[in-house]
Write a structure and sequence with these properties.
Layout lengths: L11 H14 L4 H12 L5 H10 L7 H44 L3 H29 L3 H15 L6 H13 L17 H23 L3 H15 L4 H15 L5 H13 L7 H40 L3 H29 L3 H15 L5 H17 L5
């Protein structure tokens, strides 16, 4: 993979602290907005490189936001950069969920979570709307891209296989989209070094070896880890799509956690910053305490992180080809449609009263026209929501 000429100036410490800040402040789909702003405003990647990375991480299994974080870290400083970026991103959520899990399993219930979750979802919907508009403005450059986005939207609304939608967009984009000559990223290309290949290979072997060792433990924790390794290796789609696979495995197939506990763990994953799949930490804590939480977190994220580094190397060798660039444009257009469909699904299920609608609209206006930081939107919004609950004006 080629590295940007500016990447050596970015220290590993800077990468870790930057993604640690995102992990402390970004929620749900709003993470995408924070990640894009980080890499573009700091000049780490161009806007086109950023969009290419977002398109690439949808071509293989795993959570999109975590994989994009690994992509950015790897582009900047190789395997160490990828590992520190992902560690910084997930660490705050891990610490918070472990702490809340300890309180939950000692106290038995969190009745206030569900009420706060309603206000949180309304805020998230407003922010998703802004992300969808931003990506649409950047990705829908012609009629073909608009058609792909519309088809992806209709496909998801009709509950077609979410894996097939981006694959179809990939094929259609390769055939029908002809990027304007000269629009490929103008970055300095360097040959992949033997040390980079060795580092990526070592990481992939370590992940595979960890899964094998977990399977040899012969305990519930070991089997849970193996299940999460499998989910992280084969589950496509958004965090919510992967969560559904996780629920079927840990609740229905093995009974490691009850349905109610799983739903509460999902709620904790929503009200804490960072990736939604941090719910795996909650499950791991239930099965094996803090060590179980750490192993479960590693198991759900590590397979796709390793795949990201491999795909980034391959991607760097084909991105200049017209058909490859057309395919990526198609995937990015499909992502706009999928986001729009997600927005409709969430909105129709959540915005069932005027207060919820107003909350979502306020978040949209605050970020789009007043450019407020997402952390302030969530902090202020949750305070207002709590006051409305106390006054009996919200349900």
């Amino acid at each position: 993979m080629s590295e940007c000429t500016r990447s050596p100036s970015v220290t590993l410490g800077t990468i870790f602290l930057a993604f640690l800040q995102i992990g402390l402040t970004a929620y749900g789909m709003a993470i995408l907005q924070k990640l894009r702003a980080l890499v573009i405003q700091r000049g780490w990647l161009t806007e086109e490189e950023t969009n290419e990375g977002l398109a690439m991480v949808q071509l293989y299994p795993g959570p999109i936001m975590m994989d994009f974080t690994a992509y950015v870290g790897y582009r900047l400083r190789g395997v160490p950069g990828a590992l520190l970026a992902t560690l910084g991103f997930v660490l705050p959520a891990f610490v918070l969920v472990v702490s809340l899990s300890a309180a939950y399993f000692s106290g038995g219930d969190l009745p206030w979570v569900h009420k706060l979750f309603l206000g949180l979802e309304a805020l998230v919907i407003g922010i998703i709307a802004n992300v969808t508009l931003n990506l649409g403005q950047q990705a829908l450059k012609g009629r073909t891209e608009a058609f792909i986005a519309l088809a992806a939207f209709v496909g998801l609304m009709l509950k077609l296989n979410a894996i097939l939608v981006p694959l179809a967009a990939l094929a259609l984009g390769a055939v029908a989209i002809k990027p304007v000559p000269g629009t490929a990223p103008q970055t300095a290309s360097v040959a992949t070094s033997a040390s980079r290949v060795a580092a990526v290979t070592t990481l992939a072997i370590a992940v595979i070896a960890s899964a094998i060792v977990a399977g040899m433990l012969g305990t519930d924790l070991g089997q849970l880890a193996v299940s999460l390794f499998k989910i992280g290796s084969v589950a496509f789609g958004s965090g919510m799509a992967i969560i559904s696979v996780m629920q079927a495995e840990v609740v229905q197939a093995h009974g490691w956690i009850s349905q109610r506990e799983f739903l509460d763990g999902l709620a904790l994953g929503q009200i804490t910053p960072g990736p939604i799949l941090i719910t795996a930490t909650f499950i791991g804590y239930k099965v094996g305490g803090v060590a179980g939480a750490a192993l479960a977190t590693f198991a759900i994220f590590s397979p796709s992180i390793a795949m990201t580094l491999v795909f980034t190397e391959v991607f760097g060798r084909i991105k200049h080809l017209q058909r490859a660039r057309g395919a990526l444009a198609g995937v990015l257009a499909a992502f706009v449609g999928l986001l729009a469909a997600t927005l409709v699904h969430l909105g129709s299920a959540t915005l069932d009263n005027p207060v919820m609608v107003a909350f979502a609209a306020a978040a949209f206006v605050a970020i789009r026209w007043f450019a407020l930081d997402i952390a302030w939107i969530f902090a202020g919004g949750l305070v207002v929501w709590a006051l409305l609950l106390a006054a009996g004006l919200a349900v």
